[in-house]
Amino acid sequence: MPGGRERIQVLDRATCLALLGGVPIGRVAWADDRGRVTVLPVNFVLDGDSVVFRSSAGAKLAAVASGRPLTFEADDVEPALRSGWSVMAEGFATVVTDPAELHRLDSLRLAPWAPEPKPVYVRIAIRRVSGRRLPLHPGGVHIEHLHSGETPT
Fold first, then answer.
1. d(CA 53, CA 63)
2. What InterPro entries does this protein map onto (predicted)?
3. In order along the chain (153 residues), what is the average pLDDT of each group of 10 residues?
4. HSE (CB half, 13 Å, CA atoms) of 135?
């Protein structure tokens, strides 16, 4: 490409899931009856083809109980190198109630960062996933190589 810029890469499902599995924080979003969108951060784990997070009573659980489709987004960026990626997953969420599954999820050690208790596990079964990556390219980074005994100028 002219100027050394790479095109934005569209990511396949396997790459999207691999990237989701490598970050601890994402955002859950849904629209209410009036079309107003709520977006809230959650810490999560990727469990197969599902996103799992913990919650307490409130807006997230109300959205799950109402059967609204949820969108989950996570990303990672490197501002100095002007690179990064973003993955968006869509699906319907359920509250996990099966005792054996709750025990298994407890073993994943998904500890909420917020100080209040989050006793409910929520699973978003990913139906659609899409992602994009802006490839690594130098941008505004200057590297100085110092040899023994030299000082920077």
1. 14
2. Pyridox_Oxase-rel, Split_barrel_FMN-bd
3. 67 96 95 93 94 92 92 92 92 95 89 81 97 76 60 57
4. 10
* Ramachandran area for residue 111 (φ above 0: left; ψ -120 to 50: alpha; else beta): beta
Q: Closest by alpha carbon to 42, among 126, 120, 105, 113? A: 113
The pTM assigned to this predicted structure is 0.81
Q: Which of 42, 38, 46 is nearest to 66 (CA)?
A: 38
Region of 67 (left: φ > 0; alpha: ψ -120 to 50; beta: rest) is left
DSSP string, 5-24: PPPPEEEPHHHHHHHHTT-S
Length of the chain, please? 153
Delineate the domains of the chain, giving CATH numbers in brackets: 2-134 (2.30.110.10)
